[in-house]
């Protein structure tokens, strides 16, 4: 992290697998699924929250990944 007068520059560490907590938010669940495309071993907590905006999201997502 580098602090400047009018900026804060943060260099993130590498992403790694683990549980992606959604906090019951369908937007976070969708984001976790997308991140899981490039980060191995991501487990999205309660993917069912996506039914709020797309009722069959888990099924549709699975069919896209085949």
UniProtKB/TrEMBL annotation:
Record-level Gene Ontology MF annotations: transferase activity, transferring alkyl or aryl (other than methyl) groups
Domain Enolpyruvate transferase: 3-58
Pfam families linked: EPSP_synthase
Keyword entries, A-Z: Transferase
Protein known as: Unannotated protein
Source organism: freshwater metagenome
């Amino acid at each position: 992290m580098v602090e400047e007068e009018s900026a804060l520059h943060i260099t993130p560490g590498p992403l790694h697998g683990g549980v992606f907590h959604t906090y019951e938010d369908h937007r976070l669940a969708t984001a976790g699924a997308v991140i899981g495309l490039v980060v191995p071993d991501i487990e999205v907590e309660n993917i069912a929250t996506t039914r709020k905006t797309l009722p069959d999201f888990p099924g549709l997502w699975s069919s896209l990944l085949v």
